[in-house]
Write a structure and sequence with these properties.
By secondary structure, the chain is α+β, with helices and mostly antiparallel strands. It has helices at about 30-35, 40-45, 65-80; strands at about 5-10, 20, 25, 55, 60-65.
């Protein structure tokens, strides 16, 4: 995730002022969507200490920075040398799925 999802806010009445807002906190479902995981898996990552959260009243929010840190740690872990997977030599083997662009998730 090299780019940050932003929300564009315009001025009422069609003015020209535009401000881009970087998310700071995500609800569990948005965090799940950004990570392409189920909400249950996000809770598992929270309980394992992999994702940092805060409580606002009774609502739990995931820090967007902890989502980025988590993905970066996965990438560092995944950069080691690899042996070919057993099915890689077969015709029709699928290439790895690219990480989705989080800006497209609403």
């Amino acid at each position: 995730m090299t780019e940050t999802p932003v929300q564009t806010v315009g001025r009422a009445g069609g003015g020209t002022a535009v401000m881009e807002i970087e998310p700071i906190l995500l609800d569990i479902y948005k965090a799940a969507a950004v990570l392409s995981l189920s909400p249950r898996k996000v809770y598992d990552l929270i309980y394992a200490g992999e994702l940092e959260t805060v409580m606002i009243g009774r609502s739990r929010r995931v820090l967007y920075s902890s989502v980025r840190t988590f993905v970066q740690s996965l990438r560092r872990h995944d950069e080691g040398p690899r042996s070919p997977s057993p099915g890689a030599h077969r015709a029709g083997a699928h290439p790895p799925t690219p990480i989705p662009d989080p800006r497209e998730i609403r």
